[in-house]
């Protein structure tokens, strides 16, 4: 009915989403505090250009990517088209910010005469970014742009969901490797003595893991998945009929 209020969210979902956002904002603040207090801050045309890299990767590849994954859980009763657009927009913003972070580290290395792409962190990080870009392109091709049939979308959707979660986990792993690498490069002599910078950076790592676990839990709860609206089911049947030539009463795939 038009005047009926939307159904309530499942018990516990709002609390977990709120915790995820609190963790996300805290890890961003912790990243800024680490870079500002112990690494001199952030600037582009200066020796501090490298610090743009960890800030952008945490913001883009972790926080915004995680929020993009949560869109279909949070906006459960909004139109599918609007939810899909927000999902794609957040992923696009995450990609742009991550690209800025990658450019920053390559330019910083070139200025300082440091070799590129030799560490495990760089391998995992670049793999995460390239695969994330590929995931974004495939997602746009299958779900945003016209052309893909209903059956193609249905077959690709499980892979899209799985690799979305897998790339989110890989991004967090790459960040953890990067934190350890920065600490070993900068405070290797004092790291084992529980110096404040080391403790703060380790805390950032714990926050990254906690954020990933909470987001992952929300995403893997089957009873928290976004239910299709009645009009979406009708549109889905019409789309299947148009793309595959089946009648609405035909058998299911």
Automatic annotation (TrEMBL):
Its main location: membrane. It is found in: Cytoplasmic vesicle, Secretory vesicle, Chromaffin granule membrane. Gene3D superfamilies: 1.20.120.1770. It is a multi-pass membrane protein. Residues 19-220 form the Cytochrome b561 domain. It holds the Pfam family Cytochrom_B561. GO terms for molecular function: metal ion binding; oxidoreductase activity. The chain crosses the membrane at residues 12-35, 55-75, 87-106, 126-148, 160-179, 199-219. GO terms for cellular component: chromaffin granule membrane; lysosomal membrane. Keywords: Cytoplasmic vesicle, Electron transport, Heme, Iron, Membrane, Metal-binding, Translocase, Transmembrane, Transmembrane helix, Transport. It catalyses: monodehydro-L-ascorbate radical(out) + L-ascorbate(in) = monodehydro-L-ascorbate radical(in) + L-ascorbate(out). The keyword Iron applies. Transmembrane reductase that uses ascorbate as an electron donor in the cytoplasm and transfers electrons across membranes to reduce monodehydro-L-ascorbate radical in the lumen of secretory vesicles. It is therefore involved the regeneration and homeostasis within secretory vesicles of ascorbate which in turn provides reducing equivalents needed to support the activity of intravesicular enzymes. This is Transmembrane ascorbate-dependent reductase CYB561.
């Amino acid at each position: 009915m038009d005047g009926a209020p939307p159904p309530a969210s499942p018990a516990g979902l709002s609390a977990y989403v709120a915790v995820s956002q609190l963790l996300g904002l805290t890890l961003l603040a912790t990243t800024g505090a680490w870079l500002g207090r112990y690494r001199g801050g952030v600037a582009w045309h200066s020796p501090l250009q490298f610090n743009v890299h960890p800030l952008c990767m945490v913001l883009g590849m972790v926080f915004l990517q995680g929020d993009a994954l949560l869109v279909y859980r949070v906006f459960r009763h909004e139109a599918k088209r609007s939810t899909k657009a927000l999902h794609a927009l957040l992923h696009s913003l995450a990609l742009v910010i991550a690209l800025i972070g990658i450019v920053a580290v390559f330019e910083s290395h070139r200025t300082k005469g440091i070799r590129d792409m030799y560490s495990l962190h760089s391998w995992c990080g670049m793999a995460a970014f390239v695969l994330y870009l590929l995931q974004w392109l495939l997602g746009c091709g299958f779900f945003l742009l016209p052309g893909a049939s209903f059956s193609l979308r249905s077959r690709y959707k499980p892979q899209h969901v799985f690799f979305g979660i897998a790339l989110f986990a890989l991004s967090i792993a790459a960040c953890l490797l990067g934190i350890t690498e920065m600490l070993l490069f900068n405070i290797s002599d004092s790291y084992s003595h529980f110096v404040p910078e080391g403790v703060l950076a380790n805390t950032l790592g714990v926050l990254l893991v906690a954020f990933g676990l909470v987001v992952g839990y929300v995403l893997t709860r089957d009873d928290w998945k976004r239910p299709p609206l009645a009009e979406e089911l009708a549109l889905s049947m019409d789309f299947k009929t148009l793309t595959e030539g089946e009648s609405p009463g035909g058998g299911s795939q």
